[in-house]
Automatic annotation (TrEMBL), chains A, B:
Keywords: NAD, Oxidoreductase, Signal. It comes from Hymenobacter bucti. Residues 4-157 form the 6-phosphogluconate dehydrogenase NADP-binding domain. GO terms for molecular function: oxidoreductase activity. Residues 1-18 form the signal peptide. This is NAD(P)-dependent oxidoreductase. InterPro entries: 3-OH-isobutyrate_DH-rel_CS, 6-PGluconate_DH-like_C_sf, 6PGD_dom2, 6PGDH_NADP-bd, HIBADH-like_NADP-bd, HIBADH-related, HIBADH-related_NP60_sf, NAD(P)-bd_dom_sf. Its EC number is 1.1.-.-. Residues 167-285 form the 3-hydroxyisobutyrate dehydrogenase-like NAD-binding domain. PROSITE patterns: 3_HYDROXYISOBUT_DH.
Length: 294, 294
């Protein structure tokens, strides 16, 4: 018998991941605050629940994919959270990008309840999620990590184990998003200098990404930056600004000076302040051009 | 009849490139200030010249691969430079990483002499040069670029055309080295934060470079940074510090704020000041660990 799964949070990432769990044959109950987002999954065979507690009542595994720490804590341990309705022994696979300490705090709440938390953050945009090709990080109690593997396999092309500290995979996810930010700022600075020196911006991008930077991350973000066209929206600036703030806070707490991280966070803050919500977060690259008078 | 080639500057990059020109069947004369570095090439069939002028007298193409702008200008237009001995119509393939304006100034000197300058900078470490797998940039007069292609094919796996402005390929090379610097600083900050949060530095490097950063640049530099072992030396800190200073100066001249470039230049300045010459330039990643008390 496949584990019964509840999936809470059906944004562009969560909906794609839930659909792949359904395709893989897991009995699925879904919940989203805005109920209409659950409709396509209902048509594919999912049960739609009216509350988080109702969604998890029968579940062996609860996936959450939410915007931020606050939303995750509310839906788990808040007044209308699901934890009290969860079966002892069940696993919470927490996929949101949150502070490692949030993950650890929730892990303690689960331990007190007799359930398990496994941090299960994912790398990849919505199109990658839809293709079931995410990269998954996994950390938490060993037995729970093991039991979660078939479900993780249904959403991703590979799972990397970060050990027993539930916060570890959250750290890894933050570091990964930070590195994507360095790709964007780096490409933006390089293409802007090249352009102001008379080189063709797109031609130089094509040269770089067919030689030493011939890899999807540089090709994908680089194309948006080279063409200055930040569509489609993989993730909006406000969401990743939150992630970069978590990086900077984690660096502060752990006493790690990270000059690149500070720059990226401020670029995203400027982008949010300028009020362009319907663009991919790579649009902070425009700040580099603007600073250079382009 | 293959073009006769002179190669001036037999450091670890130049010697490997010269050997590949010889293997490809080009008659080759070489010159190096320290004559013993020419010995292995003599044994492979090259003629060794005592001066730059003697080296280029019969040449259709002159390659130069020198440390910096000053060395390149001295060997070309200095009192003992080769330009006056060069045949009219010959091509100078300038492979050094130098300021775009240095390249343009030399191009004018060649035009006055009746010869041609083609900027021909290369991407790749000495082992890549030895394998004939460099990526080559090319800019300068169209006819000369065309004539140079067979020789560029002998040293590289591909040549990218940057058009008529001889400085353009120098710009591209500086931007490329800058991007490599962003990879190093980015990986150093990410791995340092991960380490201080309790993750295994090497394990996290392996996860990153087998998933979203699965590409030679991240694998190669990342390994040095993950293991904190900066051997073998692809290029020493002082040489790339010079390159990053050229990036920052070019950015200043062209009015492009480049916060990442400033940080990388200062990391290399600290590394040179600390006096560790026999390490790869990626060793500036140690500054990130040291700043975090590791």
């Amino acid at each position: 018998m496949a584990d019964k799964i509840a999936f809470l949070g059906l944004g562009s990432m969560g909906a794609a991941m839930a659909a792949n769990l359904l395709k893989a044959g897991f009995p699925l109950t879904v919940y989203n605050r805005t109920a209409e987002k659950a409709e396509p999954l209902r048509q594919q065979g999912a049960t739609v629940a009216a509350t988080p507690a109702e969604a998890v009542r029968e579940a062996d595994i609860v996936f959450t994919m939410l915007t931020d720490d606050k939303a995750l804590e509310e839906i788990t341990t808040g007044p209308d959270g699901f934890l009290n309705a969860l079966k002892p022994g069940a696993i919470h696979a927490s996929c949101s990008t949150v502070a490692p300490d949030t993950t650890r705090r929730l892990a303690e709440a689960h331990a007190a309840h007799g359930s398990f938390l496994v941090a299960s953050p994912v790398f990849g945009k919505p199109d990658v999620a839809a293709a079931g090709k995410l990269w998954v990080g996994s950390s938490g109690p060993a037995e729970a990590r093991e039991r979660l593997k078939p479900a993780q396999e249904a959403i991703g092309q590979g799972t990397h184990d970060f050990g027993d500290d539930p916060g570890a995979a959250s750290v890894a996810k933050l570091c990964g998003n930070f590195l994507l930010g360095t790709v964007i700022e780096g490409m933006a600075e390089a293409l802007t200098l090249a352009e102001k020196c008379g080189l063709d911006r797109v031609g130089f991008y094509e040269m770089l990404t067919s030689t030493i930077f011939n890899t999807p991350v540089y090709k994908g973000y680089g194309k948006l930056i080279a063409e200055q066209h930040y569509q489609p929206v993989g993730a909006p600036p406000a969401i990743i600004r939150k992630d970069m703030n978590l990086v900077v806070q984690e660096a502060y707490k752990n006493e790690v000076p990270m000059p690149f991280a500070n720059i990226i966070r401020d670029r995203l803050t400027a982008t949010v302040a300028l009020g362009e919500p319907d663009v991919d977060w790579a649009s902070f690259a425009k700040r580099v051009s603007e600073d250079a008078g382009l």
